[in-house]
């Protein structure tokens, strides 16, 4: 839970700083934590958010790598 709290706080900081790349990295890390906790619904939502953030920035390779995590 502590890791989820820390990453959630970091996500808010990067959102306030308008840094979508950092937000995507945070979303991936949160997704990985949720996956390790067998919370696959939350993991999927976080991976999807990361993919959207990367795609919106034209970062096709990064978006494709996240897509791979989605299966």
Write the SSE topology.
Elements: H1 2-16, H2 20-36, H3 40-56, H4 60-70
Helix pairs in contact: 1-2, 2-3, 3-4
Give, in order, the helices and strands: HHHH
**Fraction of residues in H or I helices:** over 70%
**β-strand amount:** under 5%
* Unreliable stretches: none
Determine the mean pLDDT: 96
Structural class: mainly alpha
- The Cα radius of gyration reads 11 Å
Number of strands: 0
Shape: flat
End-to-end C-alpha gap: 25 Å
Sheet with most strands: none
Give a brief rundown of this model.
By secondary structure, this protein is mostly helical. The protein is built from 4 helices and no strands.
Question: Describe it for me?
Answer:
This protein is mainly α and 71 residues long. It is 85% helix and 0% strand. Helix 1 (2-16) packs antiparallel against helix 2 and helix 3 (40-56) runs antiparallel to helix 4 (60-70). The longest helix is centred in the middle third of the chain and has 17 residues, at 20-36. The chain is flat, with a radius of gyration of 11 Å. The chain starts with a helix and ends with a helix.
Key terms for this structure?
single chain, mainly alpha, 4 helices, 71 residues
């Amino acid at each position: 839970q502590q890791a989820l709290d820390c990453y959630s706080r970091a996500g808010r900081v990067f959102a306030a700083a308008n840094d979508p790349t950092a937000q995507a990295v945070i979303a991936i890390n949160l997704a990985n934590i949720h996956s390790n906790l067998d919370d696959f619904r939350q993991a999927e939502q976080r991976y999807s958010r990361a993919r959207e953030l990367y795609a919106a920035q034209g970062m096709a390779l990064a978006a494709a790598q996240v897509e791979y995590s989605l299966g």
